[in-house]
C-alpha cells in the first residue's frame, strides 16, 4: 500500500532542537533587529483519512514551542495541522499563533519528496493569512514562505514572513531557521 501521508511521512514523531534555531526579528524593547538563537520542541501525530466530499486528506496534528536561552515560558508557540492530498499532490500547513494570526499555507509535492515549499499571502485566494486588528494596523503579515527539508531522522525549515511594520518604510523580512532531530 502507498504511504497515505506522502511527503509528510518523514515528519511523524516527536522532535527537538538544542540552540540551532535562529529567529531574526525586530525587538520592540531594544528598538533594533536581533538574531536570537532558540531551542524547539515539536510533536506531529498522524491522523486520517479525512473525507472532504470526494477529497481524501491525511494529516499530522502538530504542536510546536520555542524558547530562548533558559526561558521558562516559550516566546513562540503554534498549533495546527499539516495536510496531504494524494490525488492532487497538495501539501498544506494550517496553524494558529496566539498573537492573533492564522495561516493556511500550501504548495505541491510528490509523495516521496524530501523538500517542498509552502506559501501564503494576506488576502490570498487559497492560501491566506488572517490577523487581528492590532496586527493589521501595526505589523501586518504580508506573506509567509516556508521551505521544508526532510533528512534521515531530522527535518529543517527556513521561513520568511514579510511584514509591513510601522518601524520601517519598506517591508521587513522576519526569518526563522531550525533543524530538529527525532527523539521518538
Give a description of the structure.
- The protein has 184 residues and is mostly beta strands.
- It has one domain: Beta Barrel (Lipocalin).
- The protein is 3% helix and 66% strand.
- The protein is built from one helix and eleven strands; from the N terminus they run ββββββββαβββ.
- The chain has one helix spanning 133-138; strands spanning 13-27, 32-52, 55-67, 76-85, 90-97, 101-108, 115-122, 128-131, 139-150, 154-165, 172-182.
- It has an eleven-stranded mixed barrel.
- The longest helix is centred in the last third of the chain and has 6 residues, at 133-138.
- The radius of gyration is 17 Å and the shape is globular.
- The mean pLDDT is 96.
Concise structural overview:
It is built from 1 helix and 11 strands; from the N terminus they run E-E-E-E-E-E-E-E-H-E-E-E. With 184 residues, the chain is mostly beta strands.
By DSSP (H or I, 4+ residues per run), the number of helices equals 1
Distance between the termini: 24 Å
The fraction of residues assigned to DSSP E strands is over 45%
The number of strands is 11
